[in-house]
Amino acid sequence: MVDVQNDFLDPKGFFESRLGQPTEQMRSIIPHVQGLISAAHASGVPVIFTKGYEDVRFRKGPDVRRAIKWDEHDGDGSVNSESGTWGSEFYAVSPREGDTIVEKHRWSSFDGKDKKERSLKEILDQLGVRTLVVAGVVAETWRL
């Protein structure tokens, strides 16, 4: 479940309130996402959530240039889904005991780590996963 977070979905979140991008269409998938999570839990299929943070302090290379171009600074509201903020919290989904949460500071979920410091690849390998079902609202990256 990729980046189902307040800043991307909630009308008070960054995309709609700061960028003026309507989020109603993205929110329309939430019942389906919730159903998919419930079906996975009922079937014993592992559920992995990703949570993306856009903090400037963690950026490197091209991501730093993007922060300069867009005049982004940690702590002033110019960064979406900044860690520790309401905007970075999950929207209308709640991981339950046994689910995995991969936190990331880059757009790719494979760059993140879970609380055991495992990468997504390591988690998938340990679970023996050969097939993925990917869902979320910014799973392919938002285009402005």
Average of pLDDT: 91
Note the run of SSEs as H and E: HHHHEHEH
Task: State the secondary-structure class.
Answer: mainly alpha
Number of helices: 6
**Cα radius of gyration in angstroms:** 15 Å
Strand order of the largest sheet: 1-2
- Total of domains: 1
Strand content: 5-15%
What's the overall geometry?
Answer: globular
Helix content range of the residues, please? Answer: 25-40%
For the termini, the CA-CA separation is: 22 Å
Low-confidence residue ranges? none
Number of strands: 2
Largest sheet: 2 strands, parallel
What does this protein structure show overall?
With 144 residues, the chain is mainly alpha-helical. It has one domain. It is 30% helix and 7% strand. The chain has a two-stranded parallel sheet with strand order 1-2. The radius of gyration is 15 Å and the shape is globular. The model has no long low-confidence stretch (mean pLDDT 91).
Any key phrases for this structure?
144 residues; mainly alpha; 6 helices; 30% helix
Q: Mind sketching the topology for me?
A:
Layout: H1 6-9, H2 14-18, H3 24-27, H4 30-43, E1 48-52, H5 62-69, E2 100-104, H6 120-127
Parallel strand pairs: 1-2
In short, what is this structure?
The chain is mainly alpha-helical. The chain has helices spanning 6-9, 14-18, 24-27, 30-43, 62-69, 120-127, and strands spanning 48-52, 100-104. The chain has a two-stranded parallel sheet.
